[in-house]
Amino acid sequence: MKKVIIDCDPGVDDTLALVLALTKSNLDVQAITTVCGNVSGEKTTRNAQLLLNALDSDIPLGKGSMIPLVKKHVAADVHGQDGLGNKSHTLPQESYKHFSDTGAVQLIAEILEASEEPITIIAVGPLTNIALLLHTYPHLKTKIHEISIMGGGIEMGNVTEHAEFNIYVDPEACHMVLNSGVPMVWATLNATHQASLLMEDMEKFSFISTPLTQLIGDIMWRYAEHDSALHDPVSVLWVTNPELFETESLNLQVDYTDGETRGKTYVVEDASPNVRVITKVNREQVIQEIADSFKKIN
User: Fold this and answer.
1) Number of domains in the chain
2) Rounded Cα gap, residues 41 and 53, in angstroms
3) Could you list the residue range(s) of the whole structural domain that residue 43 is in?
4) Which pLDDT tens digit goes with each residue over 235-260?
5) Cα–Cα distance between 231 and 122 in angstroms, integer?
6) Of 79, 130, 228, 298, which is least surrounded by CB within 10 A?
7) For this structure, is 231 an active site residue?
8) pTM attached to this predicted model
């Protein structure tokens, strides 16, 4: 089993990624940490607690950065006011018993320090926590096997013409992570758009009537109706099923100036590679892996 820590900003696609990770038998999830992004940090933390309770989990949960490193971001509520498509009230509301007293960055550091083997970090939100971790505890870089990141786009964006959301929220953090020297694999928009969920795929899914499965089903149907990309699950599946992907080694950088291209990720030609970028996705197998995993929550 692979030891992983998941840093996220739930968020509907983060919800899919969390459920996927927690149903994968080859993952040993050591902790889940939250960061501001799709909604405020308070809401992403609350959503993570609701999801973990619904999954009857005992995984430590750490509350992370409430604001980006430099420039405050105001979430646009595209995931609903609560971040879960305005469905958070349908989940059990009791408090999560395994909420960590330490913040996200310290929690990750403690787990890395104590581990006898390197741990993979799956980062599917803005990179604020990860940048702070690498800056504050540089000696722990060798304890990180790899960071699997959902973010960025090469010659494409979604929140602006140039920038993908996770990177746009905190490009300064992205710059720090990209230049940290830690091994990382990026699922950019170029990759995740190859993992769109179609209406014809929904026959692979079946959900019994529980609050969590109804929430997941609502999310999946909404994605399928719009042929939406399953962004964050790609970064989980890279760790569990790397055979579903092809990658290329590149030098990836980010524009963290205040101009119109703020948050743009771009390739520096003829420079030494600092990342691997997913270039090809086996869409059919990605959908099947997600469907097979989600059957376990029934």
Assistant:
1) 1
2) 18
3) 2-297
4) 999 999 999 999 999 999 999 999 99
5) 13
6) 298
7) yes
8) 0.93
Contact at 8 Å (CB) between 62 and 32? yes
Return left, alpha or beta for 263; rule: phi > 0 is left, psi -120 to 50 is alpha, else beta: left
Torsion angles phi and psi, residue 64, rounded to 5 = -105, -150
Catalytic residue among 162, 175, 193, 231: 231
Instruction: Pull the structure tokens for residue 36.
Output: 């501001």
What is the spatial distance between Cα 182 and Cα 126, in angstroms, rounded to a whole number?
17
Look at residue 180 and give its three-state secondary structure: coil
CB-based contacts of 106, cutoff 8 Å, min separation 6: 62
Q: Is the preceding omega at residue 11 within 30 degrees of 0, hence cis?
A: yes
> Residue 248: which of 154, 145, 165, 173 has the closest Cα?
154
The CATH number covering residue 241 comes to 3.90.245.10
- Please tell me which residue, 210 or 280, carries the higher pLDDT value: 280
Residues 127, 177: Cα–Cα separation, whole Å: 8
Count of C-beta atoms within a 10 Å radius of residue 72: 9
Distance CA 165, CA 9 (A): 12
DSSP-derived letter for residue 115 is: -
